[in-house]
Amino acid sequence: MDSKGQLAIAHPPPQPTSLLKLIVFHGLIPILVPVFVSFKFITDRSFRATFPTTTAYLFSLVKSATIDPASRRWYFQDTTLLKQLWKLSSARAYIDKVTQRPHLEYQLREGFCGSATQMCILKSFGIPYEELPPQKGGESKPEEFAEHISRIAGEHNVELSTSIVRGDVSYEEFLSALRGGLANDNVRIACNYLRSALTGFERYYPSFLIASMYGGHFSPIVGIIENDHQHYDGKGKRRDEKDDNPLVGIFDTNHKYNGAYLVPARRLYAAVHAVDVTAKKERALVLVEKK
């Protein structure tokens, strides 16, 4: 662990930005997405009924996070809180007991976050890194994630059960699932959430706006800090009146976010409650239990 409370985890090799990637991301996507939406409007009645209100809600959610991003709050990567986080048994599960090397890894490229999250969880259950398949894309839905991680574990004689907690449950049920899963040494939690609901719009280009409202993300949840005094500084002055206890620790599989960070449970709930427009469902927690 470094002086800032982060684990030493190797960054993936840099991916050169190709001309083709720039053309696809900044040229084709802004053109093809409106074409796809128009087609769905014509052919899909339920899409026509829900897409405008869903888009308005997602835009409002991300815009609010842009004005007040969690990444600018004192707790986000507070050194003291991070050190406290890595002392929790739920977080220690991601650190090898013998070598003290982390089982965590970053995604190799965009779109590999689900696969990287699976690798983190499987390694924490004792499956050697060398025996696991390489990261890949396509782990974009909670159901696919649950099916794939169970299949990979089964190939290594590890039996897993999974349960999906959608963001359409109440906040109290969501928090109960978090607390219950993290309190069980045999359970790991993968979170499928709209990260921009925490950090806001990165840039106001069409491609970034589209990705920020409709692009989900996967990362492991490593712990939860229940501390009635976490909003007070050393002089007893309250720092944040609006933020809710508890704080949830997420290891972001995207190395650009520098490892683990903490966000209030209610803000994470809103990010999971955000609808995946392609699936027409809220995003979800995936609880993975080793039998």
Walk me through what this model shows.
There is one protein chain. The chain is 41% helix and 15% strand. The protein is of the alpha+beta class. The chain has a single domain (19-290), classed as Alpha-Beta Complex (Cathepsin B, Chain A), CATH 3.90.70.30. The chain has a 6-stranded antiparallel sheet with strand order 1-8-2-3-4-5, sandwiched between helices. A hairpin with a 4-residue loop joins strand 6 (275-276) and strand 7. It is globular and about 55 Å long. The mean pLDDT is 89.
Which labels suit this protein?
291 residues, alpha+beta, Cathepsin B, Chain A, six-stranded antiparallel β-sheet, two-stranded antiparallel sheet, 8 strands, 15% strand, globular
Short description:
With 291 residues, the protein is of the alpha+beta class. Helix content is 41%, strand content 15%.
Summarize the SSE layout with pairings:
Layout: H1 19-43, H2 45-67, H3 79-85, H4 89-92, H5 113-124, H6 142-154, E1 160-166, H7 171-183, E2 187-193, H8 196-199, H9 206-214, E3 217-225, E4 247-251, E5 260-264, H10 265-273, E6 275-276, E7 281-282, E8 284-290
Antiparallel strand pairs: 1-8, 2-3, 2-8, 3-4, 4-5, 6-7
Arrangement of strands in the largest sheet? 1-8-2-3-4-5
CATH superfamily: Phytochelatin synthase, N-terminal domain
Shape descriptor reads globular
CATH uppermost class: Alpha Beta
pLDDT average, as an integer? 89
What is the count of structural domains?
1
Q: Give me the secondary-structure category.
A: alpha+beta
Name the poorly predicted regions.
Answer: none
CATH topology term:
Cathepsin B, Chain A
- Helix content range of the residues, please? 40-55%
Count of individual beta strands: 8
Helix-strand string: HHHHHHEHEHHEEEHEEE
Strand percentage = 15-25%
Task: Report, as a whole number of angstroms, the end-to-end distance.
Answer: 30 Å
